[in-house]
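Quick review question:
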């Protein structure tokens, strides 16, 4: 099991000097419940959104075809599920397969979390068969955004992830990279970017050949009812930030006001992005996201366009306007 939150409260600059940043020894896996090793399986992509009901698949048409909604940078697809429970089962399989692929290729797996309901949807990874079959020693955990509050504060994305996921898996404490909450927002953002640069230099985080930006293996993102992703909100100047890897916001339209966030260039350098969205209250931005990105009513989620693969995990309520 993961260590308690107190192990992650030291400033990141102290963490940079810690031996824990060196690549950890590979820990023998416990016996897998699978008869065969996990294999990476990319979701199929077509000109339709696929709906999932148990083992039955149905097609969901959109006003704009998936080929129109596809980005130039990478593949885009969507899965629609009858329930959040079914979504969670599929998300666990998808995440575990990608983790297995990268762990075997480069002996590390870099995964970025966000807050909100996403953490609940990851719960199946902490259950059999994944708790026993995943190579947790290869995982390195980051946050797409964080509220600048103490780690034991109810608004903390770290606390949310720790309570709902990290405390339930055997993650190595040195592989969990939380922000230095002792710093003000600007300092915390700069400190986190420094940490990322160190991990790029040390080879833990890959580099995009196209942009030179950090290339995370998997970014797990949620979406707000206004179409925001991370802490990039509609109409806010940070949506257009192109220079910084990590920046800060002091006037968030949602409390708490002070946050740090990855910028879109870093988000879009990812190998894989899963956008996990549930609930009828988010159906409007989901619908907008599948329309032509030149539309004047662009919402931030429409700007998610990774170099690699983008897959939407939607429950039927979130997909109700497609």
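Suggested answer, residue by residue:
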């Amino acid at each position: 099991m993961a260590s308690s939150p107190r192990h992650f409260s030291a400033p990141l600059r102290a963490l940079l000097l810690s031996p824990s940043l060196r690549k950890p020894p590979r820990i023998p896996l416990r016996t897998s419940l699978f008869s065969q090793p996990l294999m990476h399986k990319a979701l199929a992509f077509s000109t339709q959104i696929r709906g999932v009901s148990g083992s039955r698949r149905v097609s969901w048409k959109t006003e704009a075809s998936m080929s129109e909604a596809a980005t130039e940078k990478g593949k885009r697809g969507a899965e629609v599920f009858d329930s959040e429970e079914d979504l969670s089962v599929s998300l666990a399989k998808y995440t575990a397969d990608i983790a297995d692929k990268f762990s075997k290729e480069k002996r590390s797996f870099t995964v970025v979390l966000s807050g909100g309901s996403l953490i609940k949807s990851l719960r199946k990874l902490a259950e059999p068969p994944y708790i026993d079959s995943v190579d947790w020693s290869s995982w390195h955990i980051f946050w797409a955004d964080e509220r600048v509050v103490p780690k034991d504060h109810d608004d903390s994305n770290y606390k949310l992830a720790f309570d709902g996921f990290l405390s339930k898996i055997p993650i190595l404490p040195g592989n969990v990279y939380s922000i230095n909450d002792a710093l003000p927002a600007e300092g915390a953002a700069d400190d986190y970017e420094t940490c990322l640069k160190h991990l790029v230099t040390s080879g833990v985080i890959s580099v995009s050949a196209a942009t030179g930006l950090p290339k995370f293996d998997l970014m797990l993102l949620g979406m707000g009812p206004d179409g925001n992703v991370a802490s990039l909100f509609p109409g806010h100047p940070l949506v257009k930030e192109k220079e910084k890897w990590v920046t800060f916001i002091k006037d968030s339209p949602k409390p708490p006001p002070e946050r740090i966030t990855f910028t879109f260039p870093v988000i879009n350098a990812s190998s894989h992005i899963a956008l996990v969205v549930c609930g009828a209250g988010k159906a409007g931005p989901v619908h907008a996201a599948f329309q032509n990105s030149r539309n004047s009513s662009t919402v931030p989620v429409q700007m998610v366009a990774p170099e690699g693969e983008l897959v939407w995990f939607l429950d039927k309520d979130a997909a109700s306007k497609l």
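Why it works: The chain has one domain: 75-291+302-315. The domain at 75-291+302-315 is CATH 3.40.50.1360 (Rossmann fold).
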